[in-house]
Amino acid sequence: DRRQFNPAHRIQRGRILAHRGETLAYSQERQGQVYRLYPYGPAFAHAVGYSDPRFGTAGMEAAANAHLNGSTPASLPAWGELGRQLVTQDKRPRGQDLRLTLDAELQLTAVRLMGNHRGAVVALRPDDGAIRVLTSIPAYDPNRIADALFRGGDPRSPLLNRAPHGLYPPGCTFKIVMAAQALIAGFQGTLPCPADGFTTSARYRKIRDHDYYTARQNGRIWNGHGHLDLASALAKSSNVFFAQLGVRYGHDAFHENIERLHFNRQIPLYESPSGSQTMDTGRIPPIAASNQYGLAQVSLGQGRMLVTPAHMALIAAAVANQGLAMKPRLGESDPPAPLARFMPASTARRLAQMMRRVVTEGTGRAIDVPGLAIAGKTGTAQNPQGQAHSWFVGFAPAERPLLAAAVLVEHGGFGSRTAAPIARDLFLRARELG
Predict the structure, then answer these.
(1) Backbone phi and psi for residue 400, each to the nearest 5 degrees, phi listed first
(2) Using an 8 Å Cβ cutoff, are 352 and 320 in contact?
(3) 72-119, pLDDT tens digit by residue?
(4) What is this structure's pTM?
(5) Phi-psi group of 222: left, alpha or beta (phi > 0 → left; psi -120 to 50 → alpha; rest → beta)
(6) Closest CA to 246 of 313, 305, 322
(7) pLDDT in tens, 241-269
(8) 386-396/375-383 β-pairing
(9) In 3D, which of 124, 99, 105, 97 has the Cα closest to residue 43?
(10) For residue 382, how many C-alpha atoms fall within 13 Å in the half-sphere facing its CB?
(11) How far is Cα 208 from Cα 244, in angstroms, rounded to an integer?
(12) Mean pLDDT value across the chain
């Protein structure tokens, strides 16, 4: 109800707090009118949302609306406060505070590291699903909601919450998914990875490794990788290897694997009687059994498939947590709960070792820092609208993972040069914060 005399507009809504107690949203009365204020401006806009008498609510302000307004008392003192307001007919009823799992310092660090890039950063604890970072850039200022924000036409799409809902080709980060499939199927040995590449039919362009094109641009001849085992192929990010791998195991195994990893779904991050906050997972349409080349393409993270940064972070967290994906959550008081077993524990342990090798001797070498064993996978996703998107997906420390993350930089180019350093610095800041 947008009418100014609506009593709901005079409610002193509860505060929204970060994990360590920082205030992300609070109410303040001025000349008989209650205003909602957001001290950090755009930094938490997509996660926290806004509450405005004219434009309504969004984000956690919408999902937890009843709680913040005080109409769903969750404790004996809260029931007592509601009774006092009813008996005294208090014209300034107060709502209940809501504490989120977000870490204010880490969130601000992610915003700073992204700079002027568009994209998203998601970080969560593998062992309990607590989301510490949910950053989408560009954002809007919830303190200054105006008509222009909703008219559309802004190419930056500041209202789009890229972290849980932005859909992007995953590029080479999807090779984590394919490596899990191969390990579950018992893959052993090697596959040939010649410089000339691989295709399923002479009608289709050959799939080649990045090294082939780099050598050709520099006037050199590249002799190929030769025969690669699974760990080496992941470290070198061989397109030729993973294209063959997908075709080798076939359509049924591929679709069983993505079903196990919860593709083509929506996962709640917070639920209440007044609403919910959700995340989308990857979208992979069915691939016809006759389409071998299409299967080869998606097996290396291209073709007809899209993922969200939140889903890739969740997959990394599952690898870090012995294959068990915990339900991602934004409410600090929500108890940790398992979501699904994405892979057997033995598979996760071997895959974690392979992801560590990516950083120690593969495409992620530039972010291997002393004292912090990062495990992950870089990704450079071809984009028909311009320069490739830059990815990094991983966790740290590799021996006892405490944080998993996904970084997506739109039009950022090579994952090793743009997204990976952002993830490294985020992990380092997390270590500083304990």
Answers:
(1) -150, 80
(2) yes
(3) 655 556 556 656 655 555 555 678 999 999 999 999 999 999 999 999
(4) 0.93
(5) beta
(6) 305
(7) 999 999 999 999 999 999 999 999 999 99
(8) antiparallel
(9) 105
(10) 11
(11) 11
(12) 92
CA 228/CA 9 separation, integer angstroms = 64
- How open is the CA angle 3-8-11, to the nearest 5 degrees? 135
> Which 3-state string (H, E, C) describes the chain?
CCCCCCHHHHCECCCEECCCCCEEEEEEEECCEEEEECCCHHHHHHHHCEEECCCEEEHHHHHCHHHHHCCCCCCHHHHHHHHHHHHHCCCCCECCCEEECCCHHHHHHHHHHHCCCCEEEEEECCCCCEEEEEEEECCCCCCCCCHHHHCCCCCCCCCCCHHHHCCECCHHHHHHHHHHHHHHCCCCCCEEECCCCECCCCCCCCECCHHHHHHHHCCCCCCCCEEECHHHHHHHCCHHHHHHHHHHHHHHHHHHHHHHCCCCCEEEEEEECCEEEEEECCECCCCCCCCHHHHHHHCCCCCCCEECHHHHHHHHHHHHCCCEEECCECECCCCCCEEEECCCHHHHHHHHHHHHHHHHHCCCHHHCECCECCEEEEEEEEECCEEEEEEEEEEECCCCCCEEEEEEECCCCCCCCCHHHHHHHHHHHHHHCC
- In this structure, is the dihedral angle defined by the CA atoms of residues 137, 143, 146 and 150, taken in order, positive or negative? positive
- Distances in Å between the Cα of 82 and the Cα atoms of 13, 29, 71, 216, 239 are 13, 20, 8, 73, 61
